[in-house]
Amino acid sequence: MPSQDELFEAVDALLEEEPQLPPPEERARLREAAGVTQARLAAVLKTSTQTVKNWENGRSEPKSPRLEAYQRLLKGWAAKYSAHAAHTTLAPAAALQPAQVPGTFTSAPEPTDTVRAPAAPTAPERPTRPAGRPATSRRAAAKKAAAPAVDPRFPHGPLAVLDGDGSAYAVGGVVLDCPATTVPELVEWTLRESGLGAPKLNRYGKDSDPLIVLTAAAAVKLGLPERLEGHEQRRSLRLPEDHPVVKQVAKAKWQLTQRGFGPWARIYRKAQGRERQCVQLAVLSWDALDERSWPGVAETEPADIARVLGVYATRVITPRGSTAVSGLELMTALRPPTKAVRDQETGNWVSGYNAGSLGTEPMDPAPPEATPEHPVVVNSGWTGGFLNEEAYQWVRSVDTLSDEECTLPYAVGLDLNTAFLAAAARLVVGLSAPDHFVGPTFNPKIPGSWLADLSHIELDPRLPSPFTPDGSRPTGPAWYQTHTLAYAQELGYDVHPIEAYLRRETGAYLDPWHDRLKNAYVDTLADMGVTKDLDDAAFLAAMEQHKQNDPALAAVLSAIKATVKGGVGKLRERPQGKHYKEGETWPALARPTWRPDIRAAVISKARVNMHRKLNNMAKMTGLFPLAVLSDCVVYPSPSESPLDFLPYAASGKPQPGGFRLGPTPGLAKLEGVQSMLWAVDLMEKGLNPARHIKGGDAVLDEGE
Fold it and tell me: Where are any strands of DSSP class E within 310-447?
């Protein structure tokens, strides 16, 4: 007999297939994804109603209001569709099949189960569905619910910051009294009394475990060292196994993950049924909040830390480690690998593959997609070369500068907002293992790695080559990701691959990840006074002071950007530690999300997008860049403002195709201004002006 939560999850899955529930504009896509008919729907609803009745007859506990609500919904819909199923029709069955790509390559159906980010930091992920009104769409309900209720299971939000006096600062200014004096007591209090946690981001996923952030004083009170001292602990960033606190945890029958007790410690017991027992700890004085991702946050007051992390947790995800770890966790939270499916033979609900996800098992990459130390490469003796899809690091030769360019007084840097995030939008990637092909016909719709010779393509030397990270012309056959070859074709050149590693099953895996992070980025900027309705001059003015308006939200914005970059980098995490030997596996390879091919696809598309804008700018304005570093480009300019060289139509609107100013991913903002003399001096020394245009040394945004 299924548990009550399992029953509810199964019924939720059925309710999502009800064709009158979603708003009209989403019904067609839902029908295509579900592939159901009205007759099948009526039968399934009837079966599920009987399942509820059978389960209820065998229960011993009182009937819950939630179960009664589901019964009313099911009975009403089953009655409705048993009477009217014959009078309604759907699209022909052929129209419901997944889209076909030549060569039996298939595109995975797009799930419609992602929960959208809320508009306000403290809002729940979705409004509750009215029990007696099954025909009301979720979108309409969301508009009416201006201030949705907090999830009753987690009344105090996703996290709290614990100080040395026992005060736990939660989101929204709530302060809880925590009497715990040991780590096991803290874990028990968090799970049973704190009211902390966050609802799942996808109906097939799991609720976020509560996070307790420990100040230095709280860490000492719980018996932890204020700092991790000694070379061994510094290197491994964890307490030794014989530390008293680690022994306390084990004695209380709690467990630590393989990472041990470090800056981000997970303490858990094996789940009983569907009840998870897990708490995430973050120790501030052990550098849990990296200064590069969370500038200045660790030094602020506990209530301010709770506010920053709370906004991030609500708009992105409850942190489970570094922003890179959180970026990867967000992918899985939005695309869970499994879902409840019905076994046709037994009628039981079992765990099954969730279409569009990466599944539960790791997948070996194709040899050219791997890293040189990967077992696939070492064990096979592969010598055929590797993908080199990386971000731009290009400096223009000073010999190509014209007299007119040299007489311009300024060098102005433009930075594309979260360029990798923009590249992830509608990015089709492989979901299955790679297959090897010899002499294939190039198809820009199939993700994969292609060996081709692009050395015959000669482009303007004042622009970087779109085919190499350093902007140099290819010298012979090399491996390219699909987007790079597709761009060569877009430029008018023939593409004849020699061989390829391609994936038959494809899908837009990163779409919900892109949507949630885009909303988080845009909403946070809007809260800082940078909104989408500003004209270009007002946008530049708002960007000059947005960080000063609210330093806490500036830290959130920094963390969101680091989540994008780090999440992409984690897709190809390299081995760490001086004792590693080539050919050995390393922990990251055990993850289904170790996918260097997806990382290559994101970076390839981002670099191609950059070159397309550079090329269009040259055609529209005659301007050529001085240097490019990932998503930052430097142009010579007659003034300190980009408004004087960006292309605008006679109406005053920005010309499409070039660089445009704005707050959304893929649009540009001002990165910095220096003198043209300064830029040329760096170029003559072989240094990249884009790295230093802001002042200081920019971090290469390559997803590492």
Answer: 338-342, 349-353, 393-395, 410-416, 429-430, 434-438
Contact call for residues 322 and 565 (beta carbons, < 8 A): no
Neighbours of 84 (CB within 10 A): 11
Torsion from C-alpha of 337, 340, 342, 348, nearest 10 degrees: 130
φ/ψ (deg, to 5) at 213: -95, 125
Closest CA to 199 of 314, 90, 288, 105: 314
632, β-bridge pairs: 415, 629
Query: H or E segment at 267?
Result: strand 264-272
Q: Could you tell me which residues come within 8 angstroms of residue 165 by beta carbon, excluding any fewer than 6 positions away?
A: 217
| Contact call for residues 265 and 211 (beta carbons, < 8 A) | no
Task: Using alpha carbons, select from 558, 573, 528, 522 the residue that is nearest to residue 323.
Answer: 558
- Mean pLDDT of all residues in the chain? 84
Q: Taking each helix axis from N to C terminus, what angle separates 65-84 and 4-16, rounded to the nearest 10 degrees?
A: 30
Q: What is the pLDDT of residues 504-563, one digit of tens each?
A: 999 999 999 999 999 999 999 999 999 999 999 999 999 999 998 899 999 999 999 999
User: Can you count the helices (H) and strands (E) in the chain?
Assistant: 21, 22
pLDDT digits (tens, 9 = 90+) for 291-305: 999 999 999 999 999
Q: How far is CA 182 from CA 195, 222, 224, 363, in A?
A: 19, 5, 9, 41
265 with 256: CB under 8 angstroms?
Answer: yes
d(CA 27, CA 29): 6
Burial string for 528-538 (b: 16+ CB within 10 Å, else e) reads bbbeeebebee
Instruction: Tell me the CA distances in angstroms from 114 to 213, 274, 510, 538, one per residue in order.
Output: 28, 21, 12, 35
Tokens for 400? 């190509």
For residue 242, is pLDDT > 90?
yes
Q: In the prediction, which pLDDT does 510 show?
A: 98
How far, in Å, are 26, 116, 175 from residue 145 at the CA level?
A: 21, 15, 27
- pLDDT at residue 109 above 70? no
Q: What is the 3-state secondary structure (H, E, C) of 578-645?
A: CCCCCCCCCHHHHCCCCCHHHHHHHHHHHHHHHHHHHHHHHHHHCCCCCEEECCEEEEEECCCCHHHC
